[in-house]
Amino acid sequence: MPALTAAPAGADEVAGGILAMLLATALALLAAGYGRGVHELWARRGVGDVLPGWRVVAFGAGLLVLLAAENGPVAVLATRGLAGHMTQHMLLLLVAGPLLAAGAAGLPLTLACPAAARRRLARLRVTGPGRWLRRPVVVALVAGGLQTVVLWFWHLPVPYVAAEQNEVLHVVEHVCFVGAAWLLWAPLLGTPRHRLPAPVGMLLLIGTMLPATALGAVLTFAPRPVYPPEVLGADPLADQQLAGLLMWAPMDVVALVATLVTFLRWLSALQRQRPERVTSPDPGSRRAATGGVLS
After folding, report:
1. pLDDT (tens digit per residue) in 108-136
2. Residue 241 and residue 218: Cα distance in Å, rounded?
3. Which of 171, 210, 216, 218 is the most exposed place for a label (fewest CB within 10 A)?
4. Mean pLDDT, residues 65-74
5. How many helices (H) and strands (E) would you count in the chain?
């Protein structure tokens, strides 16, 4: 990403190279830790047991999407204006984050830790604060609140321009996006044992969709650019409007589809557990309830 200040090009290239190397190292360590945990888990319980193979594939795909968003054509597109940068952000928020969450990395990464660290984590989980933080309502409030704060903060003009001008802040911005999306989708796409109850999950999805919709609407319908010209495309207002649509439409579609799937899964579970409360009563039960008279 080209610097917007008068910093020497050579220094900017060196900083970009160092950050790219650090990012690649962090992703490699994350992949290695996850792989080691999966290997240990499957060696104990059998291949595909506890952690299905599709979850491992989802986690690997999430890492690949993250790499693709930070390099190649997507990174080049992000340098051409706000709309290109928004495309990059949506890949991190709506593709990389959910895929990493679907990988259910908590158990594999815990198994990859040294035994002493695992014991400390186990003790923390049973403490009062640990149990409180794992309550469904608390998880939903923390995940939804963090996603909203991260989304709005980094798209305010001052933080956004600062991230454009500083490579370190730019990396921090993207880490915040991936981390918030991972935390948001983990209780929705993770293992059934740690998944939020369906009503809470639906409220979480709708509650995080509305602030994102509001931000997308602000960018789309603003009568003039809210960002300085140097971070926008050749047509600043059109670039900003397209960026707003790129945030608005995909986030709403993903949230609504996920809400519908969660609702249908909930109804299916209710029908299996209590079919008499979900399906219509048969004629015999209706006749009994009305004293043998059917209208």
Report:
1. 888 888 888 878 887 887 787 777 777 87
2. 9
3. 210
4. 86
5. 15, 0
Confidence of residue 14 (pLDDT cuts 50, 70, 90): low
pLDDT higher than threshold 80 for residue 290: no
Q: Cβ neighbours of residue 222 under 8 Å, at least 6 residues apart?
A: 237, 240, 241, 244
Contact yes or no for 219/152 (Cβ under 8 A): no
Residue in this structure with the two tokens 């491992």, named with its chain if needed: 56
Cα–Cα distance, 27 to 67 (Å, whole number): 9
N-term to C-term CA, the chain: 73
> How far, CA to CA in Å, does 236 sit from each of 2, 93, 110, 248, 287?
18, 24, 47, 18, 69
Q: What is the mean pLDDT of the chain?
A: 84
Confidence (pLDDT) at 6: 40
d(C-alpha 162, C-alpha 131), whole Å: 38
Question: Dihedral, CA atoms, 201, 204, 205, 210, nearest 10 degrees?
Answer: 160
| Mean pLDDT value of segment 187-202 | 86
Q: Measured in whole angstroms, how far is the alpha carbon of residue 89 from the centre of its chain? A: 11
